[in-house]
Amino acid sequence: MENNPSAHAPAPVPQRTRGRVLVVDDDPTVAEVVVGYLHRAGYAVEQADDGPAALGRFAECRPDLVVLDLMLPAMDGFEVCRRMREHGPVPVIMLTARGDEEDRILGLETGADDYVTKPFSPRELVLRVDSVLRRARAVVPVDDAGPLSGGGLDLDPVARRAHRDGRALALTLREFDLLAFLLRHPGKVFGREELMREVWGWDFGDLSTVTVHIRRLRGKVEQDPARPRLIRTVWGVGYRLDLEAEGPRTDAGAGPDEGRERGRVL
Fold first, then answer.
1. Selected residue with higher pLDDT from 188 and 131
2. pLDDT for 139
3. Is the pLDDT of residue 10 over 90?
4. SS3 call for 52
5. What are residue 48's DSSP bridge partners?
6. Is the pLDDT of residue 261 over 80?
7. 62: phi > 0 → left, psi -120 to 50 → alpha, else beta; which?
8. Bond prior to 119 in cis (omega within 30° of 0)
């Protein structure tokens, strides 16, 4: 791609910006369309066309959200996401090629909050940006603001801190919200559609998003993620947070979903 000095110039900032978004894509056509739609939706937009440039812009402008392509020159999107997350939580929406399920799943496992497959509708992408930012900025209702605990877990929804047996947990935005939701409803089974609606705020979407986040959460809160005792799978129904004393595994142990997760077939 030609070296265009203006490619990294920030788009004009709307008088009333809804937030600052960093768009990282080495395809100038895709980047132009995404930037245009986000700007018209009221966002201030920064741009970068490779990994090192993205990290530089991220450090300079500290965006509220990053739209990040996976296939980048010099450094792929997975590494860019990991390095950004080293500086603190930031919502990330990954752009993936159509049919690249492994990349999509790995993107979610890296900590992305959402993904959009190419080719995509720019309007849908703006809606996803709106949704992820709305969730990230959501004010915790007074009734839900108190500390949550059980099963060795301690969560502070206001400070967004989580601990397991006194050990700090490094949770992403969605992982924290998912765990907080389950802690508010211990013992109740939720299907993936229900979790997507209640935690993600979506009425549509790929349900494997929920499956991947459950797997990642187990990896952080379970003593043995391969044999979960806290976040149980209830066969054919969904997931349940079990805060009772750990005992022999029953029907809510490693169900078919978990077997498929370990086999990476979602």
1. 188
2. 57
3. no
4. helix
5. 24
6. no
7. left
8. yes
CB-based burial of residue 209 (10 Å sphere; 0-12 exposed, 13-18 middle, 19+ buried)? Answer: buried
Helix (H) or strand (E) holding 95: strand 92-97
Tokens of 158: 């206001």
Neighbour order of strands in the sheet with 167-168: 148-150, 153-156, 161-164, 167-168
* 3-state secondary structure at position 82: helix
Does residue 193 carry a pLDDT above 50?
yes
Contact 105, 78 (CB under 8 A): no
Give CA–CA dist 2/11, Å, rounded: 19
CA pseudo-torsion sign 165, 147, 171, 191: positive
Look at residue 218 and tell me whether its pLDDT is greater than 80.
yes
CA separation for the pair 127, 60 (Å, rounded): 26
Contact 103, 70 (CB under 8 A): yes
pLDDT digits (tens, 9 = 90+) for 80-126: 988 988 887 788 998 887 556 666 667 776 667 788 888 889 998 99
Distance CA 252, CA 242 (A): 9
232 near 242, Cβ under 8 Å?
yes
* Among 89, 47, 37, residue whose Cα is nearest residue 72: 47
Cα separation, 178 vs 139, in Å, equals 16
Classify the phi-psi angles of 187: left when phi > 0, otherwise alpha if psi is within -120 to 50, otherwise beta: left
